[in-house]
Amino acid sequence: MLALEGAVEIPGIRISLPYEEEEVPEELPEAVYLLPTVVAPKLALKGLLVFSKEDKIFHLVQQACNRREVDISIARTLEATTEKLTTGPDIYHLIVIDGRYPNFLDAAEIAKAIRLTEGYNCATIVALVKRSFFESDATMTAFLDAGVNTCIVECYHLPYLNMELKQIISTTVKHYSIISTQEVLYTALNRIKDVLIITDNKFVIQYVNQAAAHLLGVLQKEPTKKHLSEYFVSDLTQWINALKPKDLTGDKPLDFAGTVLIKGKTLESTSFPVRARQLACYGRITTHLIFNVDVPVISQGDSSIASSHTRDFRGSFAAARRSSDLKGIPTESRRASAAKLAAMPLEAPITKIINLLSQLHENCSTDEAHLIDRVLDFLKYESLYSPQMKDIQMEDPIATELIGALITGSNVHSSRRSSNDSTIRTAVTRPTASLISTMKAAPLIMDSLKESLSWEFDIFRFEKITEKRPLLYLGMEIFDKFKVFTSMRMDQTVFKNWFLAVESRYHAQNAYHNSTHAADVLQAIGVFLSHFSKKEMSMDCLEESSALIAAVVHDIDHPGRSSAYLCNSNNPLAILYNDVTVLENHHAAYFFKLTLCDDSVNIFKNLEPDIYKSMRNIIIDMILATEMTRHFEHLAKFVSVFGGEMNCNKEIAAIEEDSALLMRRMLIKVADVSNPSRPYLFCVEWAQRIAEEYFQQTEEEKTQNMPIVMPMFDRCTCSIPKSQIGFIEYIVMDMLLAWDNFIDMPELITYTRNNLEMWKHLEEEGVRTIADVKRSCCYGLPTYSNGKSNSNAI
Ligand SMILES: Nc1ncnc2c1ncn2[C@@H]1O[C@@H]2COP(=O)(O)O[C@H]2[C@H]1O
User: Fold this and answer.
1) Pick from 32-46, 251-265, 280-294, 736-750: least confident
2) 492 partner at 20 to 30 Å CA-CA among 59, 216, 510, 680?
């Protein structure tokens, strides 16, 4: 806490007398100079002489400068001057411009340029002029208007120049240095956490620092010129009497301390210990009062009030407690910490929440106060949105294990094993575009693409007819529909190259995390975006492009193993990303590396840097949002913003940036796990594919003698229906309900409910393995993995 009696004095008040120690005049009142002061630094003066030529006067000025110990540099032109000010290592306190020959040097123009240079508002500028100039009002006014501080007349008499320079240094140069020092002090006052208010001797507020403005809940300028009684609501009579302007001679300046009821915009009237001190800036009469409000600090793990003034104030603060505060120590400490929070120069939404709850706490019943106490306790947790596994009560161990692994990233063991890179399949080589098959398939592909924005789009048939390149064809189609090429001012060929490169970096051998999954997520986002426009909601075109790009790349180079597996096997990616969000970090970084490495695939190349930067931010944020460990956090935040009645006419672009961020995250999250909300056969196919990938991981963990992330996912024993019931009920359904409320797509809910019923039915029938599920899929109905398809089976 700032101790008024022993440390910094208020700038502009105490340091307005810039005397160096040996210069302090005898008659200065004792009470004044006994107080500590902040003295402007004793400057090692640097000067700049702006002279076009070195004539006799130049040499005289130079000698005078040497005499006054001004270390000088020389500039001959305007350009040289600005270069010295902007690039040189020195700061010039004094600049003398030769204004005698306007044809060679325009002193006014140079002065203006100096004033415009950052940091030179406090330099002293002197113009050396001919006597005729000096006597011309117009010329002098022009100089002063340009920022010249003073003019001296051309004179060949060295003692005259010496005296002029001495006067200028001891007045203007030194005062400027004091003003700079004051700026430092005001900055310090503004930043400290102590609450300071300065009034004149009539209690009219002159200044409040930031902490005071925060405490009062006002803008910093607002209280200026208002009477202190607008904020100090206690009767101030006693204060006014005690603090009446006094002759300070001989006396120590008077302090006054007591408890004052203070009210602010966001602060209920609250008692605070306040101490005041009088100051005399001119003469001996009090001219200013400094009020220091003591906002108590709570020491760690202790509810006692601990500030540097605690002892002085504890009694009065405690006595001022209101009866409702007698609910226990936590209330007092909470009030104190709320007040402390309010006084801090930073403000987060959580600060406002805590303040509001604390205010509520003051005026409620004991039961309600207990509930608010519990809420405030919860608000202290850092992992506010992280679900605790114990809160999720699932009867089925398969579901428990799956959800646990997804949302907590659990079963990450610190492995003693050395890394075994062979278990992570590396990227497949880039395929060469098979023109012939593409051409043969083209009519089928083109026909299929007519449905590219339908929720019933048959992605598995598309996978087949594109010879496992669904991402390229669907991507080009959807990007074209959403005018991504135009928005990003990029040739389609570059996009085609890019899709080829990206698709080749998806591992075709992965059962689930391959380019068909990426194409499916892209397609889902395409459908959602088209729904936005149907509902008259729209996203900015670059935001839309970013969302589509994020979908395309969100699982690029996925190894077909989970992040937990990578951590357990000490995979280099886990090492690189410190076991945190390993896969998603890798997808984002890998995508940017791939895209920026070569102009032939650089889809960002024609964007302005700031546009590229914001697209990059959006894409990275969306990819990272697909990490399931933060699933409930994203969902809870989304619901808290968009959970109510949706105003469909609202422009998404007009939604606050924070909310738009939540919306984009939910857009990709829903798309990423929307497979249970697709038509029945597709839902089953996805369930088989993900289960296959989980089984392969479990098998590998067993053979490698590694920790097993999901032991239940054993090919021989696992019940696919049970895993799907758990996945839908605990992960997917709530999210889809929230999303449907936002986007109005009831078909998502209908399909999911039907599929859930179907899984429950299969479960009751005793269907367990992939083979069972395949068999059960309406006999004879072809499955996609054997190459045949029948979209009527939906
Ligand atoms: N139908 C499903 N059944 C079980 N888990 C799924 C299903 N669909 C997606 N997932 C999981 O949800 C995760 C979402 O993020 P990932 O794509 O990294 O990995 C996905 C799978 O682990």
Assistant:
1) 32-46
2) 510
